[in-house]
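Shipment paperwork, digital attachment
Item: protein structure file
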Amino acid sequence: MSAIDGVIHRALIKKKKRQKALELASKPSLEESLRARFVILETMTKPGRGTVVYKLADKDDPNQVLCCKSILERGNEAAENALLSEATKLEVCQHPNVVKFIKVGHEFTTPYFFMEWVSGENLAQKVNRHSNGGFRADHIAWLIYQLAGALDYAHTQGVCHLDIKPSNVLIGADDAVRMVDFGAAQYVGESNEYVEASLSYASPDYIRTGIGQPEDDVYSLAVMTYCLFLGVAASADIGMVIQGQKRPVVIPPHAWKAIKAVITKPRYHGYSPIQFAQVLGQIDTDTPLSNAPIFNNMRNADLVLSKKKADVFSAIDGWKSLEITLIGATLVLVAFLVIRNVFSFAFELNSSAPVKPASFTYDGQVFQPDDTSWFTYQFLNEFTSETPELSKTAISVVEAYDRKKSEREKQLYQQLNPVFEDERQADMTRREELNAVKNELITIRRLMQGGQAGDSVHIEKQLSSAQARVNALLQNESLYSENAVTPEEALNLLEVGDVVFARKAFESAWQKATAHAYYYAHEVRYQTVVKVLARVASLMDETKFKDASSLIENAQEVFPESEEIRQMGALLYARRGEYILQQSLHSDLVVDKSIIQQAYQDVKTFAPERLEQVKAQLKEEIAQGSESRFKAGALSINAKNVTSIVLPDWEWEA
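Attachment content:
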């Protein structure tokens, strides 16, 4: 572009800006629109962010006070985008301890959003009032626990707040805690050239990279916790101060350990917000509670805070390093010897008496489903039919080998089952989230096709929500297996001589695959059989014998080797036979004689021990009803058929 072209281009841009400014000037301002419906009680500006906040009272209901946030200068696209981004993140992160979002909109091209107004004061104001001392440990723990719940929820939505500080924490007149100001919030892993943060509370890793991570919010939470214990405001070098400082007397040892761990390793401390809060929640009964309170009422705090005496580590806080090291080494050695002996005893006990699967009891019978793999039966049947000369000893060896192999696989499965349960739950959550993302994308497409005024706000909201879900999915640790190893990676490990890690990687991958195989070959079968037994029992109790028979027949086809299903089938056919014989004496319709014959045969075949009892019950019922019920019609025919089949030697007068 030549110099003349550049001058013309800048002139055109200035002209467009003047035209836009004139166009905006001709329209009413947002403040004028607000005055038509509300009384503006207070106006607070943030020039650094280009925003303005109005405290409003509804003219029709003065007791209803709201908060409206908008931009200072109309036509400022950067400020508009930032405001809409803040509104969408606030809406996505709605939680009982986050300020309540009401709505977002445009008024004469000016974006805004409404939220609740919290009557009370922010935490910074409380710190200023108590600058001569800190706050009570139990009040700090209760405050941090509520904030941690809000942050944990935001992180599940893929959002990092990134501006946790006392002035952004409101304590309502009713002691309700509200986290506010999502102006600096980012999606997890999102990169911004311009980092907006309070340097005194922000994680140094966030300031350095401009990329927000959940650990950064925990860092800010830890800094704020430290300041609340001492009753001071944070400084820019607070991290270095804490790292080089000995534990202040007012901070309990367990809290100091957690604070220092987070500050020392801003991104690698291993705490989630709620885990950090749970550490603080262990209130030391020896900690003085004479400092200033944060709340007037601590209702429900006892549900999450626990009191405990100072532990051994607190007692030795002032001991010399050498003394602690010697005592610690002795304790470790003793513990190792004890654990080794206990582990050896438990392993021997477990090897000699393997745990049997749980049983299922119904109608006085105990069903003990085994957990042998279904393909073992199938393999043995095929193998012995193909090799009839194979001795029974050889077959028993194969069966014994499979049992031993299954025991080993079962041990691995039991060790890793909690991990698998988490993975299965994570898979379900991912499917639900992906469906939600799909629906949001469909909504975005419809909005884009519609082209209506104001749709840009809804599109921004849907895109932000979809991005939050995708970020949350990408955070899921189960997507990144630490144990997986590819042939290329294994080759590289062997070439560089990292034999230990390569062996561990292969062993871990094998254990996981073996445990997975055991689950599908054994555990799924066992759990399915138990569910079939329970369902059949339930159907029998509801006298739905047709459905129960269909289910048991299908199950016998899938699990022909299952003795428990055969036992339940026998019980079902016997119970069904008794039911048909009993109901025949009460039916107004003629029951086919072959059905009565089959019912009697089922009782005789599958429950011979009950046959005489069934006959006695039928004889008694027919005898009692012969004078009134069995004189004529279907009842008489059914009674005669039952008598002729079940009681051929007994005569009665119809």
